[in-house]
Design brief:
Among the domains are: about 15-65; about 130-185, no CATH class; about 195-218. Helix 5 packs across helix 6. The protein is built from seven helices and no strands. It is an all-alpha fold. The protein has helices spanning about 15-65, 85-90, 110-120, 140-145, 150-160, 165-180, 190-215. It is about 60% helix and about 0% strand. The relative contact order is 0.04.
Length: about 220
């Protein structure tokens, strides 16, 4: 219930003694409940400990009884008779029973020689050229740069500008150095083809010029 028009500033404050009494009562009640809870936990733990002790005694008694029983391998077991699937198919089934599927055909036995032929790996064709990247078309310009003595770092930079993979360029340089170690690199095969084509073109142009000169003289 609220009192209307009540000015709290005019009320007298609670005394310190009253506050201390309430605080002490709160602590006493809290400690009482905690002690009660701890006592209940100790009782439960004692009961569980007693139950575990009884279980240990029962397990020990059962182990002692089991040790007195002879080995299970000495107990007679009736042999399990194998049923031929063909004979099983001939047995009449009750109405509404789904029949068993027919037996799978036996796979032919493979002798040792056939097994070795199957397991023998297929020989892959061997590439005789240990330096396959040297005369590859996309490295033609890099080949020409290395041939005239351009530094490897500049060749790598040129390869990056062409969009080539840096690891592939490094491998190309390694193969180039290994293939032409201590020797002068020959002309690239594509350059030779281009030179032959240019030579044929020049010869054809010279023949055409000669024909034109002869026609003019005539």
């Amino acid at each position: 219930m609220t009192v209307p028009n009540l000015d709290a500033s005019k009320l007298e404050p609670a005394s310190v003694e009253r506050i201390l009494i309430d605080f002490n009562l709160f602590i006493i009640n809290s400690v009482h409940h905690l002690n009660k809870f701890v006592g209940m936990c100790e009782v439960k733990l004692a009961e569980n400990h007693e139950k575990l002790g009884r279980l240990r005694a029962l397990v020990a008694n059962l182990e002692k009884k089991l040790s007195s029983i002879p080995d299970s391998s000495l107990v007679y077991q009736a042999p399990i008779q194998s049923i031929d699937p063909v004979q099983l198919q001939s047995i009449p089934l009750p109405v509404g029973t789904i029949p068993l599927p027919p037996p799978l055909p036996q796979q032919p036995q493979i002798n040792q020689q056939q097994q070795q032929q199957i397991e023998q790996p297929i020989e892959q064709p061997k590439d005789d050229d240990p330096y396959p990247l040297v005369f590859e078309k996309k490295y033609k310009l890099l080949y020409s740069l290395l041939k005239v003595g351009v530094h490897e770092e500049n060749v790598k930079q040129k390869g990056r500008t062409f969009g080539l993979d840096e690891d592939d360029v490094i491998e190309f340089i390694r193969q180039f150095r290994s293939k032409f170690q201590g020797k002068k690199a020959p002309t690239h095969p594509l350059d030779e083809q281009q030179q032959e084509q240019d030579k044929q073109k020049d010869d054809e142009e010279e023949e055409e010029d000669d024909d034109e000169e002869e026609e003019e003289e005539n």
